[in-house]
Each structure stands twice: as structure tokens, then as C-alpha cells.
Amino acid sequence: MTPGLTGPAFVADPYPTLTALRAEGPVVAGDGQWFATTHHAVSQVLRHRSFGRLWTDHEPRDAMEPFNTLHRNQMMENEGETHRRLRKLVSSAFGRGHVERMRPRVEALAAEMVGRLGDSFDVLAEYAEPMPVYVIADLLGVPREDEAFLRAWSQAIVHMYEPDVPESTRAAAVTASEHFAEYVRGVIDHRRANPGPDLITDLLAARDAGMALSDDELVASIVLLLNAGHEASVNAFGNGLHALLSAPSQLRRITSGEVSVDTALEELLRFDAPLQLFQRTATEDVQIAGVGIAAGETVSCLMGSANRDEAVFQHADQLDVGRDPNPHVGFGMGRHFCLGAPLARMELQISLTALLDRFPRLMLVGEAPRRPTWVLRGFESIEVGA
Q1: Which one of 59, 186, 198, 309 is CB 3.0 to 4.6 Å from 39, fit for a cystine?
Q2: How far apart are CA 231 and CA 241, in angstroms?
Q3: Any idea where the domains of the chain sit in the sequence?
Q4: Ranges 171-175, 228-232, 267-271, 329-333: which has the least confidence
Q5: Strands of 120-122's sheet, edge to edge?
Q6: Secondary structure class of 208 (helix, strand, coil)
């Protein structure tokens, strides 16, 4: 990792360091890889056909195989025909009206959950963390009551995406991968025998209709949807709400009706990105922002840095909920643009609206501790009062 991209101070606030990196150049070398720092450079890498997301098994392979299997067989870690086939299958299922069909259920869920909140509460533990698991569970057709261990497995797996993880994290990720895969296989078997109006049934139908998908690919795709549907949504909501409550004048622009929640959400996603880094590998020699990248070299796209690029966003370090246009890279770009972006936007819009309608004078209570991670940036808890 390049100097400065580690340590508690960086985790607490990475943006001064990222600003300094952008000043060094659009593409910066460090620790055997390249770092794309600007909005232009990040966009180029994410869109360029000469970069791929190429999975490399974690070693030792035998010990890590449950974790490796889940990643080797899902769309995020593949390119070319394999990626196109997996993405087409899953996107076709999403295209069957699942997202809009979910809207009344998400609205009812949000109303029910905010109705149970008291005058002071941890908005992550009591609202933001269970909400996206309930939503993605409903979408996939798995029981809501399984939320607690689905969330635990998801968190154990995604902790592996941080740099230099300890052996205890690796062991936890392997165990979670084993349990998660076993659980999903059980759900798949049940849905084969008992089809329903859910995404897993659609995936099975598409597979049976001739779009070849192995059992390992089916399991990996479902785990990916559960992981992405949970982790990204929780961090996006938590980071955005904390930023909003730290800027009361911006909050008033929303609660007064001056700025719509839809417009504000794009700024919340930009201002404190839930995904700070996304790696791509050059499949051939290529130039990015005038810098030569050799085949086989890795470029880490600094998403949070791109979203604070002053060349694209005026007063980039200031929260402006009315910012429009807002070409942030919060959902990625190119072939790996987030497939769940429509669902995430709908879920965030409904959950934030319900919370602010119920608590228009919501405020922070005390200091909100950060998670000790930065690739997936979020909070441990956020205490609020009404």
C-alpha cells in the first residue's frame, strides 16, 4: 500500500491524504501497483477494455478453497464471456420487475421499523443494518428471520477485502464461506421444489431455459447479491446520514422540501464513498492519463479520491445536497457498474425519507466510532436523538 493509506488517522479521515495524492498526479506508483487518483483517471481505468477484474486464489488454496470458490465463480471476479454470461443472467432476472415490485414492501418495512424507534437509538444497529438484509432477503426469497447470521457471514467475508488481513480474519472468512454456501444450496434445493415470485426462482428458470450456470456459479451469484446488497447499503446510509447530521443547514434543505431526497442521495454517495478502492489489472500495455501501465500490472482506483476531485466537483470537500449534476463514481463504471444500483437507490431513498419524516430534528449524540477499515468505509455505530 502506498505510504499514508494506513493507520487510524487515515481511517478516520482519508480525504486530506487523498487530496495530497491527487496533487502528485492522476496515476501514482506505490507498493508494486498503481493508484488512480483523479476522477478522469479512475473513469478511464473503469471503462477501459484493457483492464480486467482477474481473480487470483488466496493461498494456501486448500485451506482457502471455500472462500476462493465463492469468488472464482461470481461475476465481479471474472471478465470476458464468463462475466457477460453471469451478468446477463442475473440482470435479466432483475429486469423482470423485481425492483419496482419491491417498493411497497420496502416502504411498509421502513414505516414499521421507524415506528419502533425511541427518542434515542443507534441508527445503524436498529435500522440501517437490518433493513438491507431484510430487503435483499425478500428479493431472493429467503426468510427475514435469518438476517442475523446472514449479516454475520457477509461481514466475515468482506473483511477479506482490506489490505494485510491477519490469519484470524482469513479463518473467519473461510468458515463463513462454508456456512453461507451450505445455506444457499439449501435455499436453492427448496426453490427447485417450491418455485416462488423471487429472484432465486427466476435464476433457476433462466438456467433451466438454457443459460448455462453451474451450481457453484449459482451459489456464488446469490452470495454476491446478499453481500453487496448488505454491506454497500449499510455503509452508504451510515456515511451519508452522519455527513448530513454533521451539517444541519444541509439537513434543513431536505426537511424543508428545498432539495429532494433523490438529489441529496447522490451527494451523500459522493461525499463519503462506502467503497474507497476497486482494483483492476491490465491485460495488455495501456496508457492512463499519460502514464504507461504494463500488462499484468494492477491499478487501484481510489473511488473516494475521484469523488473529491476539484476538477469535477466545485468545493468538493463541502457537502452540497443540491449538487446537480453529480457524476460521482459511487456505483462504479463500465462493465462492472453496480447491477444493484436501482435497488440501492430505491432502498436508500425510502429509508432516509421514512427516518426524516418521523424524526425531522434528528441529531448526533456523541462521537460515532469508525470501523477499523477503509476499503469498505463505514461506522461501527451512530447514536442519534430525536
Answers
A1: 309
A2: 15
A3: 8-385
A4: 228-232
A5: 120-122, 383-385, 363-364
A6: helix
Per-residue DSSP letter, 125: I
Distances (CA, A) of 31 to 34, 163, 236, 253: 8, 12, 29, 43
233 is catalytic: yes
Residue 78: CA atoms inside 13 Å, Cβ hemisphere, count?
Answer: 20
Please give the share of the chain, as a percent, with pLDDT higher than 70. 96
Q: What is the DSSP string of 10-34?
A: HHH--HHHHHHHHHH-SEEEETTEE
Sign of CA dihedral 169, 16, 1, 226: positive
Q: List alpha helices for 48-97, DSSP H.
A: 61-72, 80-94
347 is catalytic: yes
Residue 16 has pLDDT above 70, yes or no: yes
Residue tagged active-site, from 36, 228, 264, 301: 228
**How many Å apart are CA 202 and CA 225, to the nearest integer?**
14
Specify the residue for cell string 416502504. 107
Residue 129 annotated to the active site:
no
Cell numbers describing residue 221 = 451469484
100 noted as active-site residue: no
The predicted-structure confidence for 323-347, as pLDDT tens digits, reads as follows 999 999 999 999 889 988 888 999 9
Query: Where residue 95 falls among pLDDT bands split at 50, 70, 90?
Result: low
Q: Give the active site residue among 205, 206, 289, 338.
A: 338
User: Any bridge partners for residue 177, and if so which?
Assistant: none
| Assigned C-alpha cell, 304 | 473516494
Is 78 in contact with 220 (CB distance < 8 Å)?
A: no
Residue 207, Cβ density class (10 Å: 0-12 exposed, 13-18 middle, ≥19 buried): middle
**Grid cell digits, residue 236:** 452508504
8-385 in CATH: which number? 1.10.630.10
Alpha-carbon gap, residue 204 to 190, rounded angstroms: 11
Whether pLDDT at 211 is above 80 = no
Catalytic residue among 43, 233, 300, 305: 233
Residue 33 in grid coordinates? 501497483
- Give the integer Cα–Cα distance in Å for 43 and 334: 8
User: Catalytic pick from 77, 266, 267, 347?
Assistant: 347
Dihedral of the CA atoms 20, 22, 28, 34 (nearest 10)?
110
Known catalytic residue at 380: no
pLDDT band at 229 (very low <50, low <70, confident <90, very high): confident
